[in-house]
Amino acid sequence: MRAALMGIYTLWLRDVTRFLRDRPRIISSAAQPLLWLFVLGLGLSTAFVRGGSPQYLRFIYPGIIAMSVLFTSIFSAISIIWDREFGFLKEVLVAPIPRWSVAIGRALGGSTVAVLQGAIILLFAPVVKVSFSVPQLIFAFIVMFMIAFSMTSFGILVAARMQTHEGFQMIMNFLLLPMFFLSGAMFPTNRGLPIWMNALVHIDPLSYGVDALREILVGMGRFSLFLDLGVIILFGTVMLSVGAYYFEKTE
Asked: If you compute the radius of gyration of the chain from its CA atoms, what whole number of angstroms results?
């Protein structure tokens, strides 16, 4: 167990250190959500109110935070494929640590990086007229970490079965955009949707993460907060368990 904990800590520290030393990555990763918030958000808000709707910006603000966490979490898993190509993953897998600890360490590292990235978007809350207390902020960080851990585990599961980063990007792009748009990050999902789309919204795990953040930050949740957290935890547990299983079977 001591070796497993050391392996988890080492892999977590490696991911966080690489992120903090890569300033262009920090800037570029923060720029995309901000563009969605202030360019696309302001553009879409003019469709409702001439000159823009501050209420719409407040509505999509938690969704943009979730988007930042989602994309950072998923694509942090692509480093597994790079590590496989350059031989680092093989060295880790033959180290005297349980292989499941590799999956957990990478999941925790990717989750921490994603939460740090999402925290940058939280700094712009006053600009969109969103205010929250310290307990709300702490709870928001907890939910962000839960979303990040679930999505990083999902990315690790996919990366464990892929051999090239091009294939990983193709599959992730195919899955991520529908997952994001169906989550209700950009539009309400509680009325007016076709039956088939409403069903997809309910099976999208990100829907519950966005809803939890929206309830905590702006008080506009659709589902029960307990349901939101339960679905996120269940999804993350299943993804990490299956991902760890594949690491155990990796040659």
From this structure: 18
Domain boundaries, position 231: 2-249
162-170 long-range contacts (CB < 8 A, ≥24 apart) are 162/81, 163/81, 163/84, 164/81, 165/78, 165/81, 165/82, 165/85, 168/77, 168/78, 168/81, 169/78
pLDDT at position 144 is 93
List Cβ neighbours of 12 (8 Å cut-off, separation of 6 or more): 105, 108, 109, 112
**Tokens found for residue 153:** 């585990």
Q: What tokens does 126 get?
A: 């006053």
Q: Could you tell me if 157 and 246 are in contact, meaning their C-beta atoms sit under 8 angstroms apart? A: yes
The residue length of the chain stands at: 251
Residue 7: the pLDDT is 80
If one counts the domains in the chain, the total is 1
Euclidean distance between CA atoms 184 and 57, whole angstroms: 13
pLDDT band of residue 51 (cuts 50, 70, 90) is very low
Threshold 0.85, pTM exceeds: yes
Torsion over CA: 94, 98, 101, 103 (sign): positive
pLDDT score of 228: 92
CB 169 within 8 A of CB 71: no
Q: Average pLDDT for residues 67-75, to the nearest whole number?
A: 85
Is the pLDDT at 145 greater than 50? The verdict is: yes
